[in-house]
Write a structure and sequence with these properties.
The chain is an alpha+beta fold. It folds into two domains: 162 residues, Triger factor/SurA peptide-binding fold, CATH 1.10.4030; 94 residues, Chitinase A, domain 3 (Roll), CATH 3.10.50. The chain has eleven helices and six strands. Helix 3 packs across helix 5. The longest helix is centred in the N-terminal third of the chain and has 32 residues. The chain starts with 5 loop residues before the first helix and ends in an 8-residue tail after the last helix.
């Protein structure tokens, strides 16, 4: 029930439901040298491969809806929008999230349905979950290293193939030409050129050794001399630096509480759903 699983789980379920729904006619879905492959054959294959798990997920979703109706529990459009906003922040913006949704094979509506289902479960099962300060403290101590802030550099670069090109760009920068415009014109790094060469923030061990040595040795707003790596010659502009800092419980308390809540919800939901299935009148023809 982890929120980070919305797209992965939702995409798999949506695809399976789409493929299974309505495939009982004899209509051909493909033709091979004049021989038809009909929908019924495809349906049988899909049921054999994914039918049991997909139907079980659909049964669970239906039980959640029914229990929510009994308890008069609802999820508002505002709550779904707020959840979507969190996802946009995690993925680096609305466009990045849209790209992730599309690459997963889902639609925005399908993702919102997964979010709605999660929020219903959270409202039905969540009130019984209590996360104590002792649990938060223990989790922090066990995972302290992961909450420490490593030193980071925020930088842009212009990548060219030869030292001569790099020196030419360096001279233009000395004469006051704009770094972002030169990146768009000269950089062979097609992933960043149009964005002015922006690389974002990175820690040690993420970039080529020569690149990192130069970047971490620079001050904010400083522009490097040409730096050679296996990729070519880089001109680096450091746009910001974050100093290393030890983990602080107060700064991470809410994040830890959410992690522990999600873990507890996952466990509680499994037990809750097992009880609901035991009490429900379910006729599953695939079992």
């Amino acid at each position: 029930m982890k929120k980070a699983m919305y797209i992965a789980i939702g995409a798999a379920l949506a695809a399976a439901i789409f493929l299974m729904t309505g495939f009982i006619q004899k209509d051909a879905v493909a033709t091979v040298n004049g021989t038809d492959i009909d929908k019924e054959s495809l349906y049988e294959k899909l049921v054999a491969a994914n039918g049991v798990a997909t139907l079980d997920a659909m049964i669970s979703d239906e039980l959640v809806k029914q229990e929510a109706q009994k308890a008069n529990v609802k999820v508002t459009k505002e709550e779904i929008d707020a959840e979507m906003k969190k996802y946009e922040e995690q993925y680096g913006g609305a466009e990045a999230l849209q790209s992730a949704i599309e690459s997963s094979g889902m639609t925005v509506d399908q993702l919102e349905n997964e979010m709605k289902n999660y929020l219903l479960i959270e409202k039905l099962v969540g009130p019984d979950i209590e996360i104590t300060d002792e649990q938060i403290d223990a989790y922090f101590e066990e995972n302290k290293a992961s909450f420490a802030q490593a030193e980071q550099v925020e930088a842009s670069h212009i990548l060219v193939a030869t030292k001569e090109e790099a020196e030419e760009v360096s001279k233009k920068l000395e004469y006051g030409e704009d770094f972002a415009e030169l990146a768009a014109e000269y950089s062979t790094d097609t992933a960043t050129a149009e964005a002015g060469g922006e690389l974002g923030s990175f820690g040690k061990g993420e970039m080529a050794a020569e690149f990192e040595e130069a970047a971490f040795g620079m001050k904010a707003d400083e522009i490097s001399e040409p730096v050679e790596t296996d990729y070519g010659f880089h001109i680096i502009k450091v746009t910001g630096k974050t100093e290393a800092a030890e983990a602080d419980l107060a700064d991470n308390k809410e994040q830890i509480k959410e992690i522990l809540f999600d873990e507890a919800l996952n466990t509680q939901y499994a037990s809750w759903m097992a009880e609901k299935k035991e009490a429900a009148d379910i006729k599953n023809k695939l079992e």
